[in-house]
Write a structure and sequence with these properties.
The protein is of the alpha/beta class. The protein is 38% helix and 17% strand. The longest helix is centred in the middle third of the chain and has 16 residues. One of its GO terms (biological process) is protein maturation.
Length: 385
C-alpha cells in the first residue's frame, strides 16, 4: 500500500476532476481497453464523477470474456478425458460453455485444478508422469511470456506429458477493428498499462496516425485513470493525435525486449476468433511448428463443436462498447455471478461482473424497462466469420 497511496489520494483525484470539468467544451466518448481499468473505474465510481460531456465505454479488454465458446467447449471435452489433469486460473472454471462449465467437469470426477502460474503445471506433470497435464493458456500479451516460458521449459526439460490449450489475443488489432467499424463512436482510448509494460506502445503509434485519434497509456489506480482521462480529453479538445504515456513508472515505449523475445521464440501471430466479435486478422498467438507437440488441440484432436450462445446475452455488444451491462434486460436478473449467461459476468475482469460487484444491478432493477436501452437490431458484431 506504501506505493499506492499517492495514486488513491482524494485531493489529487478531486483536482483532476475539476480540471477535466473546466476544460471540456463538447461531448467525448473514451474507451478504456483493459478489464482491470474497467473494474477500477466502476469500483471508485469514476465514470459517474466525470462531467456529463465525458462518457467512458468499456472495451474488449477481458481475455476470458473474448475466449471463443468453441474453445471453452474443447476445454471441457479435454478436461473430461481419462488420465488428464486440466489446470487453469480460477475465473475460467465458471465460464459457461454451450451446456456446462469446468466446475461441472470437476464435480463429475474430472481432475480439474486451479493454479497460479503455468510453471506450476510443469511440477504437476513431473509428479504425474502417466497423466497428461493441460494448461488453459488464456490472456493478452501480458500473460504470454509466462505461458511461453512454460512451453520452452517443457521442451528443454523433456516434459512431454504437458500441453497448453492456447487462447492468446492481441490488443492493437482489436482497437483497429473497433475504429474501423461503422458502428464506432469511440474518439479516444485509455491504453492498457500492463500489456504495454510487455509490448511497449510503438504499435499504437501506427493506429493513431491511421485513425487520427489519441491513445493515452494509463495505469489502474484512481489518480492514474483520472490523469489518463484528463490527458485524453485535453488532446481531443486541442485536436491533437498521438500516444501519450501516463503510466511511465511501468511502461517504456519499446517495452520489454526479453519478454518479447521469449514470445517470438515460442509463438507466432495468427488470425483469431473473439467471442462476441468475430474473427480478427492477426490478432492472436499460436505455437510455432517446433513447439506444436505441446498444443492440446492437436494432441487430443478435439472435434469441431456445435456451439449454442445464449439468446439473452448481449456481451458481444458490451465488449464492443456499443452497450453497457445495465442496458441488458437480463442483467442482475436472469444473469448473475451464480447463474451467468456469459463470460463477462464471471470473469474477474468482465464488465458485467464489475457492475454487479459494485451494486449497479440494484439501480438497474429499480429503473423501469423504458429507462433501459435494449439492444437494437442494427447493433451487429464488428465482424463476422
Amino acid at each position: 500500500m506504501k506505493y499506492q497511496a499517492e495514486y488513491r489520494d482524494a485531493a489529487a483525484a478531486k483536482k483532476l476532476l475539476h480540471a477535466i470539468a473546466d476544460m471540456v467544451t463538447q461531448r467525448w466518448t473514451i474507451m478504456e481497453v483493459c478489464g482491470g481499468q474497467t473494474h477500477s473505474i466502476v469500483r471508485y465510481g469514476i465514470d459517474e464523477l466525470l462531467p456529463k460531456q465525458v462518457e467512458l465505454v468499456h472495451g474488449p479488454g477481458c481475455p476470458v470474456c473474448v475466449t471463443p465458446l468453441e474453445l471453452i467447449d474443447k476445454a471441457i471435452e479435454i478436461a473430461s478425458c481419462h488420465n488428464v489433469i486440466f489446470c487453469s486460473f480460477g475465473d475460467m472454471l465458471r465460464v459457461p460453455g454451450s451446456r456446462r462449465d469446468l466446475f461441472d467437469v470437476k464435480a463429475s470426477g474430472g481432475d480439474v485444478r486451479i493454479v497460479y502460474s503455468p510453471l506450476d503445471c510443469l511440477k504437476i506433470a513431473e509428479q504425474n508422469p502417466n497423466q497428461t497435464v493441460v494448461f488453459f493458456a488464456v490472456g493478452f500479451e501480458t500473460t504470454a511470456p509466462a505461458n511461453a516460458m512454460a512451453v520452452w521449459q517443457a521442451k528443454k526439460r523433456g516434459i512431454e506429458n504437458f500441453a497448453i490449450l492456447a487462447s492468446h489475443v492481441l490488443v492493437p488489432p482489436a482497437i483497429e477493428t473497433i475504429l474501423s467499424s461503422p458502428t464506432n463512436r469511440v474518439q479516444g482510448f485509455l491504453g492498457p498499462g500492463h500489456v504495454c509494460s510487455v509490448m511497449g506502445y510503438e504499435e499504437y503509434e501506427r493506429l493513431v496516425d491511421r485513425y487520427q485519434i489519441p491513445i493515452v497509456v494509463t495505469g489502474f489506480e484512481p489518480v492514474d485513470l483520472l490523469e489518463g482521462i484528463y490527458r485524453c480529453v485535453r488532446m481531443l479538445e486541442q485536436g491533437e493525435i498521438g500516444v501519450d504515456n501516463q503510466y511511465a513508472r511501468a511502461v517504456q515505449r519499446e517495452g520489454s525486449h526479453a519478454a518479447q523475445g521469449l514470445i517470438a521464440e515460442v509463438f507466432e501471430v495468427t488470425d483469431c476468433k473473439w467471442r462476441g466479435i468475430g474473427t480478427i486478422p492477426r490478432s492472436g498467438y499460436r505455437l510455432r511448428s517446433e513447439y506444436q507437440r505441446f498444443d492440446a488441440e492437436q494432441r487430443f484432436a478435439v472435434s469441431q463443436m456445435q456451439v449454442l450462445e445464449s439468446s439473452q446475452c448481449i456481451s458481444g455488444l458490451i465488449l464492443q462498447g456499443i452497450h453497457k451491462p445495465n442496458d441488458c434486460p437480463a442483467f442482475g436478473k436472469e444473469c448473475t455471478p451464480e447463474h451467468p449467461l456469459g463470460a463477462t459476468m464471471v470473469s474477474s475482469e468482465g464488465a458485467c461482473a464489475a457492475y454487479y460487484s459494485y451494486g449497479r444491478f440494484l439501480r438497474s432493477q429499480q429503473a423501469s424497462s423504458s429507462e433501459r436501452v435494449p439492444p437494437k437490431s442494427e447493433d451487429v458484431p464488428i465482424s463476422a466469420d
